[in-house]
């Protein structure tokens, strides 16, 4: 069976890490076909817009996209292309795993294996109702949380726990202070949790969560939280295990899903073959899970770990002298062994 996915090669180092990722996926003979589409600076130069209609149509048709990092130019179009994609396709669940990997510059070379599930479509991060007074002295922002949005993200987290065999969901909030918005999220989460008696549920205030993550990250399994808190926590978790070069992300909705590397375009090293493709490869592994190929996803993750353990052609950020492509070739060799 073949599956067509939309591929967005991205800006800066995006094309390099995408080529490396597709090399590994092709070597694994997964039956994937690619429909290439443009977004970001490349799209602006070629088509005069950051998100061409053809790209949107491709994602809508294929329902699955693999995306490299994009640049949103200052003063051009959307405040963020990523936020716009989430809004257009109602990609309400942002799923960010953080796992310890060998031979990385990490505070925790072992013991961390958690997932942050972040609500992706509402809350302060969306930037609704932004206004600045005429004298430039007062800025305001509307924060909106809905019962529907809270319920579906918390339910997603509990279903993910069941599906992956995880045992605990931590609901992260600030309901002690933000009694209306965060309070509604917490109240809704408590109601959903009663439907999953097989999964342990605990609650934690966001500031304590950040402290606990730094001190004892092994206590966490799945974290579910609102948009802005999730954005901060997921990057904190990436910092625990070696940085954004090892941080994949999935944006999942009912009708579409986009998988990505969450780091930036790194234009300072673009075209030099120095970029680490692991984040996008791990995003591709999330995609394979979503496509019903969990064995292949596991094989890919195991190949990445084995290559890191062997220090085989690691990129400079990992302490090696390999290139983006040679690192990918070493991973592909193990993924097909």
From TrEMBL:
Superkingdom field: Bacteria
Domain Isopropylmalate dehydrogenase-like, residue spans: 4-331
Protein name listed in UniProt: Isocitrate dehydrogenase
Any one Pfam family match given in the protein's UniProt record, by short name: Iso_dh
Keywords on record: Oxidoreductase
Lineage: Bacteria, Pseudomonadati, Pseudomonadota, Gammaproteobacteria, Lysobacterales
EC number: 1.1.1.41
Family designation: Belongs to the isocitrate and isopropylmalate dehydrogenases family.
């Amino acid at each position: 069976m073949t599956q067509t996915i939309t591929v967005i090669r991205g800006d800066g180092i995006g094309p390099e890490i995408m080529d490396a990722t597709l090399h590994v996926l092709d070597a694994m003979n997964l039956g994937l076909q690619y429909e290439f589409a443009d977004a970001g600076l490349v799209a602006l130069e070629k088509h005069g817009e950051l998100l061409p209609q053809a790209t949107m149509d491709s994602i809508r048709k294929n329902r699955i996209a693999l995306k490299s990092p994009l640049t949103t130019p200052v003063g051009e179009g959307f405040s963020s292309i990523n936020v716009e994609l989430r809004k257009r396709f109602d990609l309400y669940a942002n799923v960010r795993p953080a796992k310890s990997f060998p031979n990385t510059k990490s505070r925790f070379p072992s013991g961390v294996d958690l997932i942050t599930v972040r609500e992706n479509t509402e809350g302060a991060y969306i930037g609704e109702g932004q206004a600045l007074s005429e004298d430039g002295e007062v800025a305001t922002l509307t924060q909106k949380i809905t019962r529907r949005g809270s319920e579906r993200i918390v339910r997603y987290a509990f279903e993910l726990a069941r599906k992956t065999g995880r045992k605990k969901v931590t609901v992260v909030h600030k309901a002690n202070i933000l009694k209306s918005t965060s309070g509604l999220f917490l109240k809704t989460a408590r109601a959903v949790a009663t439907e999953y008696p097989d999964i342990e549920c605990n609650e934690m205030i966001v500031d304590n969560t950040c402290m606990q993550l730094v001190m004892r990250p092994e206590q966490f399994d799945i974290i579910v939280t609102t948009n802005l808190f999730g954005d901060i926590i997921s990057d904190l978790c990436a910092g625990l295990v070696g940085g954004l070069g090892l941080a994949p992300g999935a944006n999942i909705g009912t009708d579409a899903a986009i998988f990505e590397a969450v780091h930036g375009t790194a234009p300072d090293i673009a075209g030099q073959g120095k970029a680490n493709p692991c984040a996008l490869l791990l995003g591709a592994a999330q995609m394979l899970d979503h496509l019903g190929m969990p064995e292949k996803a596991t094989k890919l993750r195991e190949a990445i770990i084995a290559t890191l353990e062997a220090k085989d052609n690691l990129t400079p950020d990992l302490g090696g002298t390999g290139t983006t492509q040679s690192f990918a070739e070493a991973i592909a060799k193990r993924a097909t062994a």
